[in-house]
Amino acid sequence: MARADTLARAKELARPELAYLVRFPAADGMKDMELTWAELARDTKWVTERLRGHGLAAGQRALLTTSGFEGFWGHTVIGALRALRVPYGIAEAMGWDHRRTAVFHRELDPDVVIGLSAETLEGLSGSADIGEMFRSTSVVLARPAAVPVLRGAGVSACLMSAVGPALALECPERCGAHVNAAEWRVGERDGELVIAAGEGRRSRLAETPLGIAGRVETGKCACGSEDPRVLLAEAGPTSSSRS
Amino acid sequence: MVGDRDTGDRYFEPQVETMPREQLRALQEERVLELVEYAYGNSPFYRELWDEHGVHPRDIRSLEDFRARVPFITKDMVRAYRARTGDPFGGLLCVPTEELTSVSSSSGTTGDPEFFAEIWEDAPPLVTAQVRDLWELGLRPGDRVLSPPGTFRNLMDPGYQALGAVVIEVDTWIGKMHEVVEALRTYRPAYIQMMYPQMVELEHLAEKVDLKEAFSSLKGASCAGQPLSRKMRERIRDDWGIDVYEYTSAADTGTAWECREHDGFHLWEDTVFAECIEVEEHGWRDVQESDLGELVATDLDNRAAPLIRYRSEDLVRLSRGRCGCGRTHARMWVAGRRGDETLVQGRSVVLRDIWNAVEDQPETVAGVFQIVRERREVDELRLRVGYDPELTGDVDALAGRLGEAVLERTGVKPVLDMRTEEDLLNTMTSVAKFPRVVKS
């Protein structure tokens, strides 16, 4: 068919190794870093395993709220959902688009909501009871400022956050968001997070302070992962002390 | 120089883009006949509707049969089915939901958004149908593009990346144009997707920033969600040096872009069967190529939830003549939306006349305005107009001038609600649309 033919033709083009140039806020301003297709594939695989750990499987449905400039992690989440054969609805993460989030949630009844922002919750709270809306959703992966709002409303939200050029995803243990140790080195300095690229990344990134208040837990998590976990001040205290 | 590029490899899929009309028609007929069979067998909405109209696929053997027998559908009909049955897809879905890849939606600026069910492999359908247009604009492997403002019809990046472009992650939404200009200077992208409010914001920056220099790396920029006025377009092209490509919706089956000729929006007719008609009291008729009619669209490349003879409410002029670019696919020129016309005590007022009056005032040159009405027929013309506070000394004096200008253009004295442009643009509830007609 037409679109499939277009993409088949596109595959004949010489595609560069790079998929993205990721810009991220660091303590001393915006930085950028290259992201190759090979890295994107590895990142997608990691996200797939993390979402599988939340019980996501074929036959379930997801709602993703994200923005146009978040493709470097949005791409991996979408790739993971596709790998898991979980169809997703998509809405903006910006607060003014909360109505679409509400309609998607009401009509598609997603098993997992990914990327909820505090701005979306603020918009929703004008016409809905946040707790009632999301308590029955099996998995809610929310951005840092949204996590305490959701937990305060009785929703067992898990944290997800960009940590510089990396994505951090909390597991069901909810004791900090995991960062892929095979790709990144995360640490803390004076109560703030730092990140460096792992050996396998094409773009070098020396230890970079991110200006994000938080700390890092190492050691094996109860979920079985040895990936370090970041605990962000903005997301409030973890709901579990297990590790 | 704007538009001055090598045209040696102008077509991405030359055989398709320049296909002779008779071959294109044969292809459409083949797809329509398959579609009718498929939709009847799999969509409860179409089966119910066509049964009511005594239409069965066995009776549809040609495009003529299709046009003569298959009934039109409207957004309201799908909404009614959705309300009656609770099916979020309005009965259009032809596959089990678990077979879907994703669900995007309309902007929902006039009610609950409608869902678009999607099945795809490498890139979502909307942006995939734009690949030919992006190639025409000049995008090539290795070029850089700035990420688009939103994800309203799914993540767009895979479409750009299919062409070998590298996406630079920059927040390009309202209020971030300073950062965008910095990113343009740093990364020298070849393409940027823009929306009307960003243009308004750039207009404010133009006094302080050399936009022509900042945009000089662009092969082109696209703009959608709102037609650009002639003045705005000239400003973007002549003062900022951007070859701007407008695009619009192809009746929710995809998008229709300008080519480098900038003379109408190309519909990709291997993905959509387009009709331009006038619905009358007892039937319908085709309109002449030079006349305005309503765009009716049929999806030819959508096995998830195809629209079939969908009345878009878009008033267009449609031409199937070969374009100066050499493509044979039809072009359309959009005049507005059916229903955007307002009757003020019986007098017809159209958006374009108001727009011209608004643009003629220096303080409101960006053309940020809305008609506020509960119904199409009203007793008074209520306008909400956004002004640039830096250019406006006396808002009352501006309102006086503007009121006279609108009266002169439309014959109606408006009731004006003056706001700053920023206030008005901040009421937007979509990355894609700034609504020109609002209820409150």
Question: How would you describe this structure to a colleague?
Answer:
The complex is a heterodimer of chains A (243) and B (440). Chain A has 243 residues and is of the alpha/beta class. Chain A has a single domain (22-235), classed as Rossmann fold. In chain A, 29% of the residues lie in helices and 31% in strands. In chain A, strands 4-3-5-6-7-8-9-13-12-11-10 form an 11-stranded mixed sheet, sandwiched between helices. Chain A is globular. The model of chain A has no long low-confidence stretch (mean pLDDT 95). Chain B is α/β, with parallel strands linked by helices. Chain B has 3 domains: 14-121 and 264-337, ANL, N-terminal domain (Rossmann fold), CATH 3.40.50.12780; 125-249, 3-Layer(aba) Sandwich (Rossmann fold); 342-438, GMP Synthetase, Chain A, domain 3 (2-Layer Sandwich), CATH 3.30.300.30. Chain B is built from 15 helices and 21 strands. Chain B has a 10-stranded mixed sheet. Chain B has a 4-stranded mixed sheet with strand order 20-19-17-21. In chain B, strand 3, helix 8 and strand 4 (166-168) form a beta-alpha-beta unit. The chains are: A alpha/beta (243), B alpha/beta (440). At the A-B interface, helix 1, strand 1, helix 3, strand 4 and helix 4 of A face strand 1, helix 8 and strand 4 of B.
Give the key terms.
heterodimer, A: alpha/beta, Rossmann fold, eleven-stranded mixed sheet, 7 helices, 29% helix, B: 440 residues, alpha/beta, GMP Synthetase, Chain A, domain 3, ten-stranded mixed sheet, four-stranded mixed sheet, 15 helices, 21 strands, AMP-dependent synthetase/ligase domain-containing protein (chain A), Phenylacetate--CoA ligase family protein (chain B), ligase activity (chain B)
